[in-house]
């Protein structure tokens, strides 16, 4: 991942994470460009997947507020979330936050895509989890 970031300096990078304990569920984002971090408290019944998805949603909201960010990279350690976002279908069984995330990405795509240039202006990279190997936390 470090090599990718070094070679692709055009991307605006935001890191995300979700966590769940016995009495809390939280999502967080970190923007290293301005050294900004923010944590969000979610209701206790939420899953770790929901926390990870909510963190990505908040990262997209931050990018959307900047209005001039054409290329961005959201770094997540949730392989299951990235796989869910890569799936083209959202069904009634899908986590509701996935709908909002995909809608923002689609609107971003419509606003910034140009037939003369590449239509891929976002990337996904899985980061090593701090608890276990690549991807999932448990």
UniProtKB/TrEMBL annotation:
InterPro entries: RNaseH-like_sf, RNaseH_sf. CDD domains: Rnase_HI_RT_non_LTR. GO terms for molecular function: nucleic acid binding. This is RNase H type-1 domain-containing protein. It comes from Mythimna separata. The lineage of its organism: Eukaryota, Metazoa, Ecdysozoa, Arthropoda, Hexapoda.
């Amino acid at each position: 991942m470090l090599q990718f970031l070094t070679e692709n300096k055009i991307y605006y990078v935001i890191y995300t994470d979700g966590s769940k304990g016995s009495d809390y569920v939280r999502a967080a984002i970190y923007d290293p460009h301005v050294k900004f971090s923010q944590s969000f408290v979610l209701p206790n019944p939420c899953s770790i997947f929901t926390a990870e998805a909510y963190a990505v949603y908040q990262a997209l909201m931050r990018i959307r507020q900047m209005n001039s960010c054409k290329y961005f990279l959201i770094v997540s350690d949730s392989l299951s979330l990235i796989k869910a976002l890569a799936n083209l279908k959202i069904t009634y069984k899908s986590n509701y936050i996935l709908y909002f995330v995909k809608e923002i990405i689609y609107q971003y795509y419509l606003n910034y895509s140009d037939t003369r240039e590449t239509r891929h202006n976002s990337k996904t990279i899985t980061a090593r989890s701090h608890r276990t190997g690549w991807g999932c936390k448990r």
